[in-house]
Amino acid sequence: xxxxxxxxxLTLAPILERAGKLFSKVEVVSRLPGLGLGRCKYGxxxxxxxxxxxxxxxxxxxxxxxxxxxMWNHAQHVEAYFGIPVAGGILHxxxxxxxxxxxxxIVTHARDRYLIVDDxxxxxxxxxxxxxxxxxxxxxxxxHVSVPNNCENYEDFLAGAIGDxxxxxxxxxxxxxxxxxxxxxxKPKGVLYSHRALVLHSxxxxxxxxxxxxxxxxxxxxxxxxxxxxxxxxxTATMVGAKMxxxxxxxxxxxxxDLIEGESVTFAAGVPTLWxxxxxxxxxxxxxxxxSWTVRIGAGGSAVPESLLRGLDRxxxxxxxxxxxxxxxxxxxxxxxxxTLAQCGEDHQYKIRGKQGIPSPFVELRxxxxxxxxxxxxxxxxxxxxxxPWVAASYxxxxxxxxxxxxxxxxxxxxxxxIDSEGYLKIVDRSKDLIKSGxxxxxxxxxxxxxxxxxxxxxxxxxxxxxxxxxERPLAIMVRKEGMEVQADELRALLAAQFAKWQMPDAFxxxxxxxxxxxxxxxxxxxxxxxxxxxxxx
Length: 538
Hints:
Layout: H1 12-22, E1 27-31, E2 37-41, H2 42-58, E3 66-70, H3 75-86, E4 90-93, H4 100-110, E5 112-118, H5 122-128, E6 136-140, E7 152-153, H6 154-159, E8 175-181, E9 189-194, H7 195-206, E10 218-221, H8 233-240, E11 243-246, H9 253-262, E12 267-270, H10 272-284, E13 295-299, H11 306-313, E14 317-324, E15 331-334, H12 346-353, E16 358-359, E17 364-369, E18 372-373, E19 382-387, E20 411-419, E21 425-430, E22 435-437, E23 440-442, H13 444-451, E24 457-467, E25 471-480, H14 488-496, E26 507-510, H15 524-530
Parallel strand pairs: 1-11, 3-4, 3-5, 4-8, 5-6, 6-7, 10-11, 10-12, 12-13, 13-14, 25-26
Antiparallel strand pairs: 1-2, 8-9, 14-15, 15-16, 17-18, 17-19, 19-20, 20-21, 22-23, 24-25
């Protein structure tokens, strides 16, 4: 017997309608490429997103057509987040920091039909123009350059949509957005997010044990809108009517703190590298910013060191550790402290918060070892696998990648992890970043976090370097905090209290900067290449 509930499709259209009808006066603030602030309201987003949808339909958009964007985090990008999918198209956010050849491959593989590009990013488009075939290129004018002859003015394109937009019939399983991940081996691979997945993901981010986003919040997505849907924040903030503050291209610590202070931000999200910079700015410029309220921070993409948790707590910035991937839309777990563990000591709570957390509702995790599923004992480790309603079941037109999914439907993440008896996930390492020394595995993440507990270490990377006797040995490369000194012997003594002698790095190096990926993750591949011929006797 079926239930008597209505068959109401879960699509982005009701989210857009809700924002337009209920929260039309709530602000959306954008830091523009020239550092000025642009202000509009959800009423404007609603009107212009529908106008974009109508203009695309008049231009011949067909269901499933891909519309690419080369844009920073700002209001016009939010318009595209909704206007393209509710017209029946698929929003394809392009990573503007990729090499031109890789970007051209992605555009060609996705078969993008149209492009919307910021005027300041026209050089990125020009770098791939000869390799791609967009039917129309729409330039968002920010006043920096004139619109080239082979392109169209985005505002003129919108103005051509005369009359009222009528939503097409949208199936909740229809694709709404597309992102490509470069976190896999070989060519980048596309993930198609359905309307249903995005709606459920947004509802999850409203939960108190997740992002806890509500209409009373001021949300700042510090994660790029071209990376995993800016972690879903533009959809969730619009759904609940939270004021949204978009940082544009300006993700330096001072600009972020200026926005947090000036716009009274209560929730922000971004990779740990971002917040390491913010902590350094707060420590180096005491009293410069007057932020007297608690700012909730969602941090993921790489491990959050305990030193960062403790450091930002001193300034009223409370980090919740997250885990997810482009393939998981992306939020799959959050590191809050359970009520049953609230009475444990402060040090133990920091250990809990340093883990990637427990799975979100409807997301299931398991760790698979050589002999099957590993027990939840916090010790046994293996490859992390995940499944759930906003987890990808395949890549876009990449049949050669079917081995990333198990026969019983779980996605193999490539992360090596443990799960403890309370259900807390801990990523030990990426499988490619584990160090094998003398037949034993060493977690680079654990050593990095321990090194960053030293007050003079801002950031640390530990990599495995070939060794003539032990196969690989750990090499630590670090960035000192501004104006501070630390010597290798101090770091050896620090690690000796936590690690066996064979687990400790054999050498400690210092550098001015560590390499990062286009979305701010530590780029260990480049470090391994740079130090591949390291001589252990030097």
